[in-house]
Amino acid sequence: MACAVVVTPGLLRGSVAAVCTQAALLRLTASTLRHLTLTRIMKSKKETDHLERTASVIRQEVVSPAKVCGAADESPSVKSLRLLVTDKEFSFKAGQWIDFFIPGVSVVGGFSICSSPRLLEQERMIELAVKHANHPPALWVHNKCTLDSEVAVRVGGEFFFDPQPTDASRNLVLIAGGVGINPLLSILRHSADLHREQANKGSGYEIGTIKLFYSAKNTSELLFKKNILNLVNEFPEKIACSLHVTRQTTQISAELKPYITEGRITEKEIRDHVSKETLFYICGPPPMTDFFSKQLEDSHVPKEHICFEKWW
């Protein structure tokens, strides 16, 4: 099992429905790929350069063509994408991000994958969710991206959960702020897949309990809440969540109300889950990740059990 304390890029995540053919994707030629991966790197704008910020972070060598096969509004400010990646060399670990190369856009994006590795294995699909911003890749996703748009992707990042079948069982505490939910949703979905596999086959990695703490401005900005609650209901003995809203102005729905707390995630809530069997994954704005990682260290959690990623 591996995890790392690392500072990395902006993030995304989401789920959508659509179909596109592999044959159409293969029309993205080798010369187009070279254009995306070389020209765009050379022209990246320094003030928003994901490649510069993550230059020291491990990433794969393979750059793979991808085609947009679905898009949806995940919230008023976040758009989710589904990409078809037929390249069999393309793989990722739950929690990792991609370099996102867009034709005609000089800046390379950095977005976390929010789907599980199992979806890629079964359908050759990955899912992203991108928050609206003035950053050129985000603007492209929100304003210009269409079905069948061709891009290229490369996996990177040292923030992931990838247990092996013989590893000791661990509990997970996932702490998310805003679009920081993206890599943590991938980890949550991967953990659910591992539990299903272990329950069906009687072998494989045995996941412990998982508690998700997730804070957003209001319930409309709580991304993937239906996906999260579906997993909580499917595995009530394994998965639990505490959803926090900091500036709620409308009535909270009856379906969500049992899971909602008005106010920020507190130190005590996290401290109550400290144990030697627990790994902590934190992703959100830099002040939030700094605060909780320091709090956990002060609670004598080993540094190797605290994994964090900052979005910018």
From TrEMBL:
Keyword set, alphabetical order: NAD, Oxidoreductase, Signal
Occurrences of domain FAD-binding FR-type (ranges): 50-164
The keyword NAD is annotated on this UniProt entry: yes
Superkingdom of this protein's organism: Eukaryota
Cross-referenced CDD domains: FNR_like (cd00322)
Signal peptide: 1-18
InterPro entries referenced in this protein's UniProt entry, alphabetically: FAD-bd_FR_type, FNR_nucleotide-bd, Oxidoreductase_NAD-binding, OxRdtase_FAD/NAD-bd, Riboflavin_synthase-like_b-brl
The keyword NAD appears for this protein: yes
PANTHER family, alphabetized: OXIDOREDUCTASE NAD-BINDING DOMAIN-CONTAINING PROTEIN 1
Protein name: Oxidoreductase NAD-binding domain-containing protein 1
Species annotation: Galeopterus variegatus
Lineage: Eukaryota, Metazoa, Chordata, Craniata, Vertebrata
